[in-house]
Amino acid sequence: MIINHFRGAALTGAGALLAPLALFAVAPAANAGPVAEPFGPACASLPASGEGSAAGMADDPVATAASNNPELSTLVTAVKKAGLVDTLNNGENITVFAPTNAAFEKIPKADLDKILNDKEKLTDLLTYHVVGEKVTIDELPDGSFKTLQGGTLTTSGSGDSFKVNDSAAIVCGDVETENATVQLIDTVLMPAS
Fold first, then answer.
1. Does 49 lie in the same domain as 102?
2. Is 70 helix (H, G, I), strand (E, B) or coil?
3. Distance between CA 190 and CA 193 in Å, rounded?
4. Least packed by Cβ within 10 Å: which of 20, 80, 173, 185?
5. Based on the domain organization, do 94 and 23 belong to the same domain?
6. Same domain, residue pair 91 and 142
7. Measuring CA to CA, which residue among 168, 153, 181 is closest to residue 35?
C-alpha cells in the first residue's frame, strides 16, 4: 500500500512536471515564424482582442481585416467607394500604408467629400498608398517603393519612429494580415498630380 502510494505520488509528481514542460514547448511554436511584432505608439489603441486586434487582423485579407479595425473605418469606406476591396483582398505580399481616421480628419470636409465622390481621383489616391511588395520595419529606415498607382513612396527613420514621404508618421507599423503588411499612418499621402 505504501509502495503504491509513493508510485502514485511519483507519477503525479512526474505528470505535474511534464505538463508545464509540454506547455512550455508548445507555447513558443504558436508564436514562431517570420511575423514581426507591431510597433508604434498607436498600436496601444488597437483592440486588445477580437478581429480588429493585431492578432485578429492576421486571419483575414487586408480589406476585410481593415473593416474590423475601428481606427480604419474612413479608409474602409473609401476603399469600398473606389471598388478596391477585391483588388486589396486578392493581392499577395502587398503593403498598405493605411491612413487612420485621424489622418482623414486632417483633410477639410469639403475636400474629402469631393475626393470620396470622384471615383477616379479616389482610386488614384488609394492605390498610391499600396506597394506591391512586403515592407516591414527592416526596409523602412531608407526605403523607396513603387506604388500600385505608379508613383513612389519614400520612408525614413530609425528605431520605431518612421516617416513616409517626410510627411506622415507610421503610428502603428508591421500589422500583419493574411496577405499584406499594414503600416498605419497619421496623414493621408497625396500623389503628385
1. yes
2. helix
3. 9
4. 20
5. no
6. yes
7. 181
Q: How far is CA 20 from CA 26, 80, 126, in A?
A: 10, 48, 49
Give the pLDDT confidence of 61-113 residue by residue, as tens digits: 999 999 999 999 999 999 999 999 999 999 999 999 999 999 999 999 999 99
Q: Which of 49-53, 92-96, 158-162, 171-175 has the lowest mean pLDDT?
A: 49-53
Q: Are 87 and 48 members of one domain?
A: yes
Instruction: Tell me if 96 sits within 8 A of 127, measured CB to CB.
Output: no
Give me the pLDDT at residue 150, please.
97
Amino acid at 70: P
Q: What is the secondary structure of 26-42 as a DSSP string?
A: HHHHHH-SSPPPPBSGG
pLDDT for 51:
86
Sorted by sequence, the CB contacts under 8 Å of residue 58 that are 6+ apart come out as: 35, 65, 176, 177, 178
What is the rounded distance in angstroms from the CA atom of residue 187 to the CA atom of residue 53?
A: 21
Calculate the alpha carbon distances from 178 to 41, 45, 53, 122 in Å.
23, 21, 13, 25
What's the one-letter identity of residue 28?
A: P
Is residue 7 over pLDDT 70?
no
pLDDT at 10: 39
SS3 101: helix
